[in-house]
């Protein structure tokens, strides 16, 4: 996602071209599997089942992405006449650099829309408490640390009184126009939260940072832009402006390793709507080392899979069908490593057993599968243009 100020709604002809490409691609996929699954081409049933599992999983992931491309949209900024009161929260955990926290706090103070700034301090740090007093920032702390970040935010919510609350990570530096541009979307009383792009200022720090950042561009681009129409916009946990009434309706910010997704699930189950605005209003830090990157991915994978098992079944009946699909499919992304490993093992097992999972003509395979590959590439290039 680039740091541009204006992203326009796709033109009608652009959507028509994109949807035509998707239809053609689906026909190519159907044609491939119609040929690939013919019983007479099966040689070793067990290996064939494993191979089919790998191919079907990867195909469903691609089709699910195409499903999102179908309704890419950019919400028009509304005109607001309502004077909302706003609280802005950022957090501090022991060991985080003072400079990072104070830089973010000062940037929050510079935001144009009238608001109250809160530091949710898990350490009750004397330096930060003094800093807050000097700069007219509300310093909030607590005696226990239950529910991690969610508990920290909920503790501050008990003292805050604003109609809206913006949650920022301590490394995300906001632009002055953040609130001025986003608050008007709450003119619609049904809106529970508005999510914006998560961008980064340390992309050039390392190859890992660059790769980790680029991995998010597609998600914060066409994927999230389609969720406006589907009612499935993800809350990311930072750069997200919530309606206080919405949060209170679910008992505050939901806890867990993926507290942002948990909160979004609870709000959607309650009938609150959400909006994604594809603009960069803050920039923060992306993991710059493999250790930090894997730690982040492990946290997200554990969190989303826990929600799939423990929360999703309880809220299932409250979701519309698109939300059921969304929250059921999203955690499966983290199973891709297992699927890749199965695909890696198939040729090794075939080599040692001197048996193949499938005995179709390789040249014909290439000719039938090539249109599928070309469709995937063409659609991805077109949608990212």
From TrEMBL:
GO terms for cellular component: membrane. It comes from the Bacteria. InterPro entries: Glycosyltr_2/OpgH_subfam, Nucleotide-diphossugar_trans. GO terms for molecular function: glycosyltransferase activity. It is a multi-pass membrane protein. The chain crosses the membrane at residues 16-36, 48-67, 332-356, 362-383. Keywords: Glycosyltransferase, Membrane, Transferase, Transmembrane, Transmembrane helix. It is found in: Membrane. This is Cellulose synthase/poly-beta-1,6-N-acetylglucosamine synthase-like glycosyltransferase. It comes from Gelidibacter sediminis.
């Amino acid at each position: 996602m680039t740091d541009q100020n204006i992203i326009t709604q796709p033109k009608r002809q652009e959507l028509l071209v994109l949807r035509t490409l998707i239809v053609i691609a689906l026909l190519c996929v159907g044609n491939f599997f119609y040929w690939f699954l013919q019983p007479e081409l099966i040689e070793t049933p067990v290996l064939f089942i494993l191979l089919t599992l790998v191919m079907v999983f990867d195909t469903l992931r691609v089709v699910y992405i195409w499903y999102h491309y179908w309704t890419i949209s950019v919400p028009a900024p509304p005109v607001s006449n309502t004077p909302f009161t706003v609280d802005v929260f950022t957090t501090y955990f022991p060991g985080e650099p003072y400079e990072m926290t104070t830089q973010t706090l000062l940037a929050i103070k510079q935001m144009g829309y009238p608001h109250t700034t809160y530091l949710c301090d898990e350490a009750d740090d004397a330096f930060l408490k003094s800093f807050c007093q000097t700069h007219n920032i509300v310093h909030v702390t607590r005696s226990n640390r239950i529910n991690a970040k969610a508990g920290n935010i909920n503790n501050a919510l008990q003292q805050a009184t604003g109609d809206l609350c913006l949650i920022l990570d301590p490394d995300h530096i906001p632009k002055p126009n953040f609130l001025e541009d986003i608050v008007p979307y709450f003119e619609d009383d049904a809106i529970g939260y508005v999510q914006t792009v998560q961008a980064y200022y340390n992309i050039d720090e390392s190859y890992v940072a660059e790769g980790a950042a680029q991995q998010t561009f597609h998600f914060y681009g066409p994927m999230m832009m389609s969720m406006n129409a589907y009612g499935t916009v993800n809350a990311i946990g930072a750069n997200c402006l919530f309606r206080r009434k919405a949060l209170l309706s679910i008992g505050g910010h939901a806890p867990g390793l993926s507290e942002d997704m948990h909160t979004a699930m609870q709000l959607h189950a309650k009938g609150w709507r959400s909006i994604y605005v594809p603009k960069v209003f803050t920039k923060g830090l992306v993991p710059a080392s493999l250790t930090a990157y894997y730690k982040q991915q492990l946290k997200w994978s554990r969190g989303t899979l826990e929600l799939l098992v423990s929360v999703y079944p309880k809220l299932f009946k409250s979701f519309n069908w698109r939300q059921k699909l969304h929250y059921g499919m999203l955690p499966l992304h983290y199973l891709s490593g297992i699927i890749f490993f199965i695909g890696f093992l198939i040729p090794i097992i075939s080599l040692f057993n001197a048996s193949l999972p499938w005995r179709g003509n390789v040249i014909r395979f290439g000719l039938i599968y090539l249109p599928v590959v070309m469709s995937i590439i063409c659609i991805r290039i077109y949608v990212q243009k």
